[in-house]
Design goal:
The complex is a heterodimer of chains A (146) and B (106).
Chain A (H helix, E strand, L loop, with lengths): L12 E3 L4 E8 L5 E9 L2 E9 L4 E9 L5 E6 L8 H23 L5 H30 L4
Antiparallel strand pairs in A: 1-2, 2-3, 3-4, 4-5, 5-6
Chain B lengths: L1 E5 L3 E3 L2 E10 L2 E11 L2 E7 L12 H20 L11 H15 L2
Antiparallel strand pairs in B: 1-3, 2-3, 3-4, 4-5
Classes of the chains: A alpha+beta (146), B alpha+beta (106).
Chain lengths: 146, 106
């Protein structure tokens, strides 16, 4: 498959369970609702493919696109892997670190993997759990803890 | 001069891991992480010399990654149909990596 870029439908909607902005959705013959959801990470866009059934959500793939919508990372996930934000976050972290490492080796540049891991790990936590953090803070404020 | 130091095992339930560090020119680097079950080393994850500066507990991340990979491999074996990765353009990936490094201040 060639790099065809990011194709987004006109109707975007928010999924509160996953925190994704759903760009495309279709129902398969098996009855699963397949979602193609997006999440911003700085200038990059993380695309997550999930299959939602009754009481279960499976992850079927993760992609990362650059600011122009070109595919830079494709991580297909085999059948039977249950979806969680943390699982996707760890996949993205691992793939981005791999990409940075390869790029610095190719360019003969210096690269501090520990620093990169710490920074990207933190930023990804913000991208994936920002709403949860906000909700906890609002709740804590509402009951007078903070 | 290089000094190799094997640190005490850190328990993670039944599993434990041991960080081995090398001290070169007053700096500590992670040399390898041993994943241990009982008295047996299940996996020795090695790093290149001066690849990673040692920080306390840094090895745990690699243990978790290893366990995740083991589960992924197991699932791959169980899966009948393997999914293929889409092709990416090397120049695009390289540029994205440089942009990301600039954006993150790396």
């Amino acid at each position: 498959m060639d790099n065809q870029g990011l194709i987004i439908s006109d109707e975007l909607r928010r999924d509160s369970n996953t925190g994704l902005t759903l760009a495309n959705t279709y129902e398969s013959e098996s009855g699963f609702m397949h979602h193609f959801g997006l999440r911003k990470f700085g200038e990059l866009t993380i695309a997550e493919m999930v299959a939602q059934g009754t009481g279960v959500t499976y992850l079927s793939g993760v992609q990362v696109h650059d600011k122009e919508g070109k595919l830079i990372i494709d991580h297909p996930v085999n059948n039977g892997v249950k979806y969680s934000r943390e699982k996707v976050r760890r996949i993205v972290l691992s793939e981005l670190l791999g990409m940075l490492k390869e790029a610095t080796i190719n360019n003969g540049a210096e690269y501090n993997e520990t620093k990169a891991r710490n920074i990207i790990d933190e930023r990804l936590k913000e991208a994936y759990y920002e709403e949860s953090y906000k909700a906890v803070l609002e709740w804590a404020e509402a009951i007078g803890i903070i | 001069m290089k000094t190799i130091i094997a640190l005490n095992n850190i328990a993670l339930g039944e599993l434990s891991y041991q960080e081995v560090i090398s001290v070169i020119e007053d700096k500590s680097y992670l040399s390898n992480v041993n994943i241990v079950l009982g008295s047996k080393i299940l996996k020795k994850i090695r790093f290149a010399e001066k690849e990673l500066i040692y920080q306390k507990g840094i090895g745990k991340q690699f243990v978790m990654d290893y366990i995740e990979q083991m589960f992924a491999k197991d699932r791959k074996r169980a899966s009948v149909k393997k999914k293929k990765k889409a092709r990416t353009d090397k120049k695009t990936v390289n540029k994205a990596a440089v942009d990301l490094m600039n954006e993150m201040g790396l």
